[in-house]
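Title: Request for sanity check on (S)-2-hydroxy-acid oxidase prediction

Description:
We are preparing a figure and want to confirm that the structure record we downloaded matches what your pipeline produces today. Could someone re-run it with the sequence below and paste the raw structure tokens into this thread? We only need the token string, no images.
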Amino acid sequence: MYYDYYAGGAEDEHTLRENMQAFHRITIRPRVLVDVSQVDMSTTILGYPISAPILVAPTAAHKLAIPEGELATARAAAAAKTIMVLSYSSSCSIEEVASSCNAVRFFQLYIFKRRDISALLAQRAERHGYKAIVLTADTPRLGRREADIKNKMIYPPEKNLEGLISINIQCVDQGSKLETFANQMMDASLRWEDIRWLRSITSLPILIKGILTHEDATRAVEAGVDGIIVSNHGARQLDFSPAPVSVLEEVVDAVKGKVPVLLDGGVRRGTDVFKALALGAQAVLIGRPVLFGLAAKGEGGVRTVLEMLKNELETSMALAGCPCIKDITRSHVRTEHDRLPSML
């Protein structure tokens, strides 16, 4: 049941497959005879330095993978000198993760029907040293995850919601209790105007996660967000929504450099990271690979996953003739859209 929860997507899982396959259709155009004796992968996100443009995405319930849960993930991210985005639905509390190690981390937030709960979570994160809020905007209700329905998915207690709301949900059709809980909690009336409300309750920078179109990217900039994460929620929400990398350029073009754009979804290799950077992403976020590394070998497994991706990115940069991150440009990749004119 828990493997299906981590691995599964919405409905026919077309988008789940497409998230990775879309990367496969992008080729790299390497340059030769460039001095790559030293390759520097370091960069910054919102001014915070990281060793490579690879962050840990917000994913829920790490204790389903290993008893230490998010504490192990946080220590691994800190060891890799990168940023972890803690999920609101983590199985360790905001406070526990904050005290687990000294590192820069962000906090992912949903807006609930009870706004006071969302406000309290954001303020707890700010008080305990989290450096940004990542607002997940693509979940007015939970996508139809049929594996969870089949398994009658029972979600572990919401650690960050203890004492705030009852999580004893009655599921009348005996399907996914997670879906029932989420649909009772999430505020489906959330609108762009509510970004102002979020601004009023926290002084932290706000990144919005779940953007897939130039229209929404433009609205996000107009709403005053501090960053955009191109994401389809790991293909767990709307099946047949586009793979993030396939719409990355569309979002980057709409933003026009006003805020950083990051990408989440389908990244499995260092070459995928390279392709996303070439198409305009400032960094990528890694979800399922972190969870599977955690399940396999705990903190060491997460560190291995992050180091593997960093090593592969370093090799990709060297072989493509890019000694540092800023050297990776749009001319280093060819997409399906680039190939189309040559066929006409």
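Thanks, this matches our download. The radius of gyration is 19 Å.
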